[in-house]
Design a protein that fits this description.
This protein is of the alpha+beta class. 31% of the residues lie in helices and 26% in strands. The strands form seven sheets. A nine-stranded antiparallel sheet has the order 1-8-9-10-11-18-15-14-13. A five-stranded antiparallel sheet has the order 7-6-12-17-16, with no helix packed on it. Strands 19-26-27-28-31 form a five-stranded antiparallel sheet. Helix 5 (356-368) crosses helix 19, helix 10 crosses helix 11 (495-514) and helix 15 packs antiparallel against helix 16 (613-623). The two termini are 31 Å apart. The protein binds beta-D-glucopyranose.
C-alpha cells in the first residue's frame, strides 16, 4: 500500500517526483473522453521508467494465443486494445540539450488531476545537466465536448539563461503494445504528412484493418522569436522542428491541438479530411475556449453523478476518483463499445469486455446516465449472441445454446486458461441478470420481447445442457465449474453458478409466460425452433437441482467438499504473506480455504430477498473471514452486505478498500493500469451499501445509514424521468425530487410520495 497522493476533495495531487512511482502515477492521472484516452505520460522526452499508453476505443488486434499446452476449444487469439499513437509529444532542446526529467535535477514537481474540470496539469522546475534551469507548466485534456479532440498548453520559462530552443511537436504511431505476445508491431502505415500547418499519420491494424488517423496543429506564443522551421517524416512518424530564440525569465507557450479518429466512426476515405477539419477548428477556437467547453460538459456529468461526503476527505477523494474514471471511460453513445477492466489506463487484461460490465458497471450507468447508455451495454451483448452460440458449439453444446465469452472484443472468446475459459461460466448468469436489472430499473418491458428473451432462451439452453442428472443424488448437478472465486478451480456444484443458472431458467420461463400468445414472441420462438418440451425440461431442473447446504452451520456450500478444507481465517495467514497470489504457489492457494473474491456472498447479495437476515448473517460470518479480496471486484459486495447487516465498521473498511484501491495501490499493481470496472463497485458500495438503494419490483427503496467517520453525504440519481438528490447527516435523511415528475419511493420500507420540486425529510435510523 502506498500513501503519496495528497488528499483533496476534487483533485488528485502528487508533489515531488519519485521515478519509482512514475508508472503508478501514469495510471492514476490518466485522461479519457469515452472515445480515446491515455496514461499520464510526459509531453517532453523521458528516458526513465514509463509505460507509454494511448488507446482508441474499440480498436483492437487479435494477438495470436500463447499457451504452454494447447487445449481443444481454446481461442486462436487474445484481443488487445491497441496502444495507439502518441499525440501529446513535444520534444524540447535548449541550445541542443534535451529536456528529460530522468536526467535533470528536479527542484520542484507537481502533478494534478482536476476531476471537477477534467484536466491534467504538471508543473516542474528543473536544472539540466548543463545547469540551465527551466520551469514548465503543462496542462492537457481529452475534450468531452469534441470527443475527437485533445489539447495541450505547454508553457516554458527559461529561468537563468537566454539562448535557442528547438521545439518538436510530433505524432508517433510507431508504437508497440507492452503486452504483445510475440513482440509484434500491430500497426502499419497507410499515409502521413508532416507540415507546419497540419500534420497527420494514418495507420491501420494488421488483420482487423481498423484505420486510425491522428492529426496535429500547434501555435507558439509569448517570448519566442522564430528562427527556422522544417518538417520531418519517418515511418509512422511526423514532426515539425521549430527553432527560435528565447529570453531569460520570459515564458513562451506551445499550444498543441490533436485529433484521434478511427474508422469505427468515420469512413476510411474521409478520415484525414475529417481529422484536419477537427484539428483546425480546434486551433481556431483556441485552447481556452476548448477548455471551457470541456469544463462545462464535466459540470453536467457531475450534476448527474457526483457524491459528496462530509467530514472524510480521503473517502471523498476516493469516490470522486472512481466516478471520474468511469465517466471518462464509457459515455455510452455507441453500442459497439464497452468497458475494459483497465479502461484507458493500461494494457493488462487486453482492454476487452468481461462479466465486470454486467455484474458491476451496469448499476452505475443505470443510475447516473440516460436510459440509452445502459441499454447500449445490453445491446452490445445482444449483438454478440450469434458468436456466443458459436462459442458454445465449439465446446460441444447444441441447439442454440449460448456461452458468452469470458473476455471479448467482438463476441468471440479470447481467454485461454481452461479453468476460466471453459469453466467460469457464471458470466452467462451475469449477462442474463443484467437484462432483468435494466428492465426493472427503467420499466422497459419491451426490451424483454425485442431483445431480452432471445438472449435468455439461448443462455437457458446452455444451462439446461450444462447440468446433468446424478443418479446417486436423484438431482441435477453441475460439475467442472470455476466460480467467481478463482482460487478454486474445476469444482462441482459451485453454489453461486448453480443459483445463477436456476435464476436464469426461472426468469426466462416467467418472460415466456408473460408474453404467451404474443405474435412477436411466437415468431421468435419459431425462428429459434423452440419446443414446449424445453420449458418442461427447464421446470424439471428447477424442481430438482442440487444446491449445496451445510445443515450443521446452516450455510450455503461454496462447492462440494468445501468443508473438508482446513478452515481458517485470513488472520491465520502469516504476516508478510499477503497477497497470497504473490507469495504462495498456485497449488497451495487451490488447496487452501481462502477466497479470492465474493462467491457465495455474491449470490447472497444478488438474491437477498430470498433470505432472512439470520441466513445472510450466518453466510457472511462464515465466508467473510476467509476472503482475501485479491480481486478488486470483491470488497464492494462485502461492503453492501455489511451495510445491510448494520456492520458499519466492516462496511466502511470494505468501502475504503475499493474506493482507494488505486490511489493507495492496495494490490501493488496500479502501475499496470487502474481497476476501472471495480470503480463501479465502489459506487455500488456507496449507493447500495450506505444509502441502501434498491429497486424492488420496479420500485425505488432506500435504507440509509451513515458511517461513524462521516458527518453526512449526498448523491444524485436519475430514476426514469426523475432526478433525485439523497442527502443524509447524523440525524436525518432528505430526498429531493429535482424534476417536475412526481416520484413514489420507499424509505425504510415506508412509502412516500415526492412531488416534483419537493423535498421530504425523515429521521435517519442507524
Ligand atoms: C477477476 C475476474 C475479473 C477479471 C477482470 C480477475 O482478477 O477474478 O472476476 O473478471 O479480473 O477484472
Amino acid at each position: 500500500m502506498k500513501n503519496y497522493i495528497k488528499q483533496d476533495p476534487w483533485s488528485i495531487i502528487e508533489e515531488g517526483f519519485d521515478p519509482e512511482l512514475n508508472k503508478i502515477s501514469e495510471s492514476i492521472f490518466s485522461l479519457g473522453n469515452g472515445m480515446f484516452g491515455q496514461r499520464a505520460n510526459f509531453e517532453e522526452q523521458f528516458t526513465g521508467h514509463s509505460l507509454q499508453g494511448n488507446y482508441v476505443a474499440g480498436v483492437y488486434y487479435p494477438d495470436k494465443t500463447r499457451v504452454g499446452w494447447w487445449k481443444n476449444g481454446y481461442p486462436e487469439y487474445f484481443a488487445k486494445v491497441l496502444n495507439a499513437s502518441n499525440w501529446i509529444g513535444i520534444h524540447l532542446f535548449f541550445d541542443g540539450e534535451p529536456l528529460d526529467l530522468a536526467k535533470a535535477k528536479i527542484h520542484a514537481f507537481r502533478r494534478e488531476l482536476n476531476m471537477k474540470e477534467g484536466w491534467l496539469k504538471r508543473s516542474f522546475h528543473v536544472a539540466l545537466p548543463s545547469g540551465k534551469e527551466v520551469k514548465v507548466v503543462a496542462q492537457r485534456f481529452c475534450s468531452m465536448a469534441r470527443t475527437k479532440v485533445g489539447a495541450i498548453s505547454y508553457q516554458v520559462t527559461p529561468l537563468n539563461f537566454s539562448g535557442t530552443v528547438t521545439l518538436k511537436p510530433f505524432i508517433d504511431f510507431d508504437v508497440i503494445n507492452a503486452d504483445a505476445n510475440y513482440d509484434e508491431k500491430f500497426w502499419e502505415e497507410v499515409d502521413k504528412k508532416a507540415d507546419s500547418h497540419f500534420s497527420y499519420v494514418v495507420a491501420n491494424t494488421k488483420k482487423t484493418n481498423f484505420h486510425v488517423v491522428t492529426g496535429m496543429a500547434y501555435d507558439i506564443t509569448g517570448g519566442w522569436v522564430q528562427e527556422s522551421i522544417s518538417a520531418q517524416e519517418k515511418e509512422k512518424y511526423v514532426e515539425v522542428t521549430e527553432e527560435g530564440s528565447i529570453q531569460e525569465g520570459v515564458p513562451f507557450t506551445v499550444f498543441k491541438y490533436a485529433s484521434n479518429i478511427s474508422s469505427m466512426h468515420v469512413d476510411k476515405g474521409e478520415l484525414t479530411s475529417v481529422c484536419q477539419k477537427e484539428v483546425l477548428k480546434a486551433q481556431q477556437s483556441g485552447y481556452e475556449e476548448l477548455l471551457q467547453e470541456h469544463v462545462n460538459l464535466w459540470a453536467q456529468k457531475w450534476e448527474k453523478s457526483d457524491i459528496t461526503i462530509d467530514g472524510d476527505v480521503s473517502a471523498q477523494q476516493g469516490i470522486r476518483f472512481n466516478i471520474f474514471q468511469l465517466n471518462q471511460t464509457y459515455t455510452g453513445e455507441d453500442a459497439r463499445l464497452n468497458i475494459g477492466p483497465k479502461g484507458f489506463t493500461g494494457e493488462k487484461y487486453g482492454g476487452s469486455t468481461y462479466w465486470d460490465t454486467e455484474a458491476y458497471c451496469l448499476a452505475f450507468y443505470l443510475a447516473t446516465s440516460d436510459q440509452q447508455v445502459a441499454k447500449n451495454l445490453l445491446l452490445y451483448r445482444y449483438k454478440h449472441l450469434q458468436k456466443a452460440i458459436e462459442n458454445a458449439q465449439k465446446l460441444g453444446f447444441t441447439d442454440g445454446a449460448a456461452l458468452y465469452p469470458m473476455v471479448t472484443m467482438n463476441g468471440e472468446e479470447c481467454h485461454n486458461e481452461w479453468e476460466i475459459t471453459f469453466e467460469e461460466i457464471h458470466r452467462n448468469g451475469a449477462i442474463a441478470y443484467a437484462i432483468y436489472d435494466y428492465i426493472n430499473y427503467h420499466n422497459d418491458p419491451d426490451y424483454l420481447l425485442e431483445y431480452g428473451l432471445e438472449v435468455l432462451i439461448a443462455i437457458s439452453r446452455f444451462w439446461a445442457q450444462r447440468v446433468h442428472w446424478s443418479k446417486q443424488k436423484g438431482q441435477y448437478v453441475m460439475h467442472g465449474v470455476t466460480g467467481p472465486n478463482e482460487y478454486e478451480n474445476n469444482v462441482n456444484n459451485n453454489w453461486y453458478t448453480s443459483k445463477m443458472a436456476l435464476w436464469t431458467l426461472q426468469y426466462t420461463l416467467d418472460g415466456l409466460q408473460a408474453y404467451k400468445g404474443n405474435a412477436a414472441l411466437d415468431a421468435l420462438l419459431s425462428q429459434l425452433k423452440f419446443s414446449p418440451e424445453e420449458t418442461k425440461h427447464w421446470q424439471h431442473i428447477l424442481d430438482h437441482m442440487y444446491l449445496g447446504y451445510d445443515e450443521e452451520r446452516k450455510v450455503f456450500l461454496q462447492q462440494d467438499g468445501f468443508l473438508d478444507k482446513d478452515i481458517m481465517t485470513v488472520d491465520d495467514i502469516p504476516k508478510g504473506q499477503r497477497p497470497i497470489n504473490q507469495n504462495w504457489s498456485w497449488d497451495r492457494i487451490l488447496r487452501s480455504c481462502f477466497i479470492k473474491q465474493a462467491d457465495t456472498l455474491q449470490g447472497v447479495y444478488l438474491f437477498e430477498d430470498e433470505f432472512d437476515r439470520e441466513t445472510i448473517e450466518r453466510n457472511f460470518d462464515f465466508y467473510e473471514p476467509m476472503t482475501v479480496h485479491e480481486s478488486s471486484l470483491s470488497p464492494c459486495v462485502h461492503a453492501i452486505l455489511a451495510a445491510k447487516l448494520g456492520r458499519k465498521e466492516k462496511a466502511y473498511e470494505m468501502y475504503l478498500r475499493t474506493a482507494r484501491l488505486d490511489l493507495d495501490d492496495y494490490n501493488n499493481d496500479t502501475e499496470d493500469g487502474c481497476h476501472t470496472t471495480s470503480m463501479a463497485g465502489t459506487w455500488m458500495a456507496f449507493a447500495k451499501g450506505f444509502a441502501g438503494m434498491r429497486v424492488k419490483k420496479g420500485e425505488l427503496h432506500f435504507y440509509p445509514m451513515l458511517p461513524a467517520q462521516w458527518k453526512g453525504y449526498s448523491f444524485h440519481i436519475k430514476f426514469r424521468d426523475c432526478h433525485l438528490t439523497i442527502a443524509a447527516n447524523s440525524t436525518s435523511v432528505e430526498m429531493s425530487n429535482e424534476s417536475e415528475t412526481h416520484l413514489s419511493l420507499f424509505v425504510y420500507d415506508e412509502a412516500y410520495e415526492v412531488n416534483g420540486g419537493e423535498t421530504i425529510r425523515l429521521n435517519l435510523k442507524n
